[in-house]
Amino acid sequence: MEAIILQVLNGLDKGSAYALIALGLTLIFGTLGVVNFAHGALFMLGAFCAVTFSRLIQVSHTVIDETQKDFLGNPLKVDVPYIYDFFGQAAGDVMIDWAVPLSILMAIPVMIGIGVLMERGLIKHFYKRPHADQILVTFGLAIVLQEIIKYFYGANPIPTPAPDALVGSFDFGVMLGFDPGGIVYPYWRLVYFLFAAIVIAAVFAFLQFTTFGMVVRAGMADRETVTLLGIDIDKRFTIMFGLAAAVAGLAGVMYTPINSPNYHMGMDFLVLSFVVVVVGGMGSLPGAVLAGFLLGIIEAFASMPEVLNVLPGINQIIIYLVAIVVLLTRPRGLMGRKGVMED
């Protein structure tokens, strides 16, 4: 039972990342009909927003500290972050420690801007082109963004730690009545799952309960009719592209303490996220979220030593096997609209 609960937690952790990335992908496909192979790069850019913010708030200047002396008795020169000058040392230390969560404030406008610029500058020219053309141009864009990050940040992973208060593990076993140490799980992975749940709920609430969201959903169902009513649906879809980019970016920001950012991390999630979208159903937002968590849990159970002893390497291909089974039995995906991907 302890092993099962632990694997469920692992699955929810992995599923959170899959669901967030797939949600943004589905928003883009559902509104614009574009297969965006640059979406993984948006996840990577979000992670490097956290890296950049962390570096910015630690930019320092040199001052002479009369309270510290070298071996000759001369005052030492020390580096003092500029943030100390603005907020004081105590508040500055807290902000540096909590750099990853605080970088969300930077990532949201930056990622929305990148998404809008991407849609207006490139994607809009491929709306009526075949999906193969869309895949080629967005995949090329992903490679360009990847190489830009590699040029400015280098090829090595950049450790970006979680706040000190969230370092360590939570003992689920004691809470559930098991022996201490039986079910131990990292705090930050629990935070990531809760964060993903909040973002997903916010996206669905925005689409369901706001006038803007209702118009977008109407445009997804019947774009021509909404346009005939005098509504500039293209402008709203551009904003949705920006919001989808922000969702992917936020997923990357909060993932940095779990996996140190590197220039190819977007590609690592790209294929998996498309598998999640296809399994859930192209254009289906609930399907993307359901498939993300479902495949995350399946992958976690396939990674158990008991399973790997019987089927070595099954954890590397289980998601693709599930996708094959789903597509053979239900081509439109678990919750896809009828007629989508069934031709």
UniProtKB/TrEMBL annotation:
Gene Ontology MF annotations: transmembrane transporter activity
Compartments where located: Cell membrane
Pfam family, one: BPD_transp_2
Principal localisation: membrane
TM stretches of this protein: 16-35, 42-64, 98-123, 135-153, 165-185, 192-216, 236-257, 269-298, 310-328
Transcription listed as a keyword: no
4Fe-4S keyword on record: no
Membrane disposition: Multi-pass membrane protein
Alphabetical UniProt keywords: Amino-acid transport, Cell membrane, Membrane, Transmembrane, Transmembrane helix, Transport
InterPro entries named among the record's database cross-references: ABC_transp_permease, BCAA_transport_permease
GO cellular component, one term: plasma membrane
GO biological process, one term: amino acid transport
Similarity-based family: Belongs to the binding-protein-dependent transport system permease family. LivHM subfamily.
Name assigned to this protein: Branched-chain amino acid transport system permease protein
Native species: Jannaschia seohaensis
Organismal lineage: Bacteria, Pseudomonadati, Pseudomonadota, Alphaproteobacteria, Rhodobacterales
